[in-house]
Design a protein that fits this description.
- With 343 residues, the chain is mostly beta strands.
- Helix content is 3%, strand content 43%.
- It has one domain (5-327): TolB, C-terminal domain (Neuraminidase).
- The chain is built from one helix and 27 strands.
- A hairpin with a 5-residue loop joins strand 11 and strand 12.
- It is globular, with a radius of gyration of 23 Å.
- The protein starts with 18 loop residues before the first strand and ends in a 6-residue tail after the last helix.
Length: 343
């Protein structure tokens, strides 16, 4: 590929619209109708070779690509959609200071705000959400050049070290769905896990030092981890059980990078140059049905999924005037006999 592995990604998801019928309670007609949820989007970075990368979104079928950032001073990349669908985090690189920061914004690109400080020569990158959307784990490079895992609250507070090893780098962290464990890339190509309190760091997959495993992504049910590996001689999308057993390729020799699970666990999005350009693809969780989503000639990469936002129902209430003094009692009896809709 003409761009580094770190420069490819995507994000895809599906939404549901729900409507509730009228409910009669004590003479009051209440019609609760849920508005159509904000449509889930595919997030990715894109940019021609001679201009900075920017964050984009598109519909799950690849239509309506929309640029969300416009950073003339460097690359915006590594978008990650919050599990609750309300925010996007990303890495902003500033060419003038050779530094990068973690930023947060709304799904439409508004409200872009730095969560970490801009320090010349220091890189904050590889952000990923906690399952409750309140914390972000990311890679922080020290002035000595060592990569560490740090955590910050989604409002930028309580920035602190999670894991560090002065002898080896730690990067590309990803929370487990229950929030108790983090999987990450140890050294230059090993997958390790560490508890969310920074204890019990250990290898997930054995390595002989000749191959590279990276870009881990935990399945929503917590049973599997997808990752990129060159164990077959080229980069492919692999999956392993959460206990480290049964690692195997999903792409059968076809090039693929940065696989990431859909919110419902049925799909994996990934980046690939199999069509001779860098594009975003999606496939079933078992590796079947690969489908290309992007079609432009620019470099597309670094996927993640932005879930649909559930919209709270709106309620229209009309109070019926009783025709007799007995009407309210009759309505109350109806409620007892036929409870309101419960789901």
């Amino acid at each position: 590929m003409s761009r580094s592995r770190a420069n490819r990604s995507i994000c895809v998801a599906a939404g549901l619209a729900v409507a509730f019928g009228p409910v009669i309670v004590a003479g009051v007609s209440q019609t609760a109708v849920a508005a159509t949820p904000v449509a889930a989007k595919v997030l990715f970075k894109a940019g021609p070779s001679d201009v900075p990368d920017q964050i984009w979104s598109m519909n799950p079928d690849g239509s309506s690509p929309t640029r969300l950032t416009n950073n003339a001073g460097g690359d915006d990349e590594e978008p990650r959609g919050a599990p609750d669908g309300h925010h996007i985090i990303f890495t902003r690189n500033t060419s003038a200071t050779s530094a990068s920061q973690i930023f947060i914004m709304a799904p439409d690109g508004s409200g872009q705000t730095a969560l970490t400080a801009l320090t010349t020569g220091v890189q904050d990158e590889n952000p990923s959400w906690s399952p409750d959307s309140t914390k972000i784990v990311y890679t922080h490079s020290t002035t000595a050049g060592n990569d560490e895992l740090w955590v910050v609250n989604a409002d930028g507070s309580n920035q602190h070290l999670l894991y560090s090893n002065v002898a080896e780098n730690a990067s590309e962290a990803y929370f487990s769905p229950d929030g108790t464990t983090v999987v990450f890339q140890y050294s230059e190509g090993y997958l390790w896990t560490v508890k969310a309190d920074g204890t019990n760091a250990h290898a997930l997959l054995a390595q002989d030092g000749t191959n590279t495993d990276e870009n881990p992504s935990w399945s929503p049910d917590g049973t599997k981890i997808a990752f990129t590996s060159n164990r077959t001689g080229r980069d492919e999308a692999w999956v392993v059980n959460a206990d480290g057993s049964n690692p195997h390729s999903l792409t059968g020799g076809a090039q693929a990078e940065r696989p990431v699970w859909s919110p419902d666990g049925t799909k994996l999005a990934f980046a690939s140059d199999r069509s001779e350009s860098d594009h975003i693809w999606v496939m079933n969780a078992d590796g079947t049905g690969p489908t290309q989503l992007t079609s432009s000639t620019v470099f597309n990469g670094q996927p993640d999924w932005l879930p649909a936002v559930a919209v709270a129902p709106t309620t229209t209430t009309t109070t019926a005037a009783p025709t007799t003094t007995a009407a309210p009692a009759a309505a109350a009896q109806a409620v007892t006999a036929a409870p309101a809709f419960t789901g």
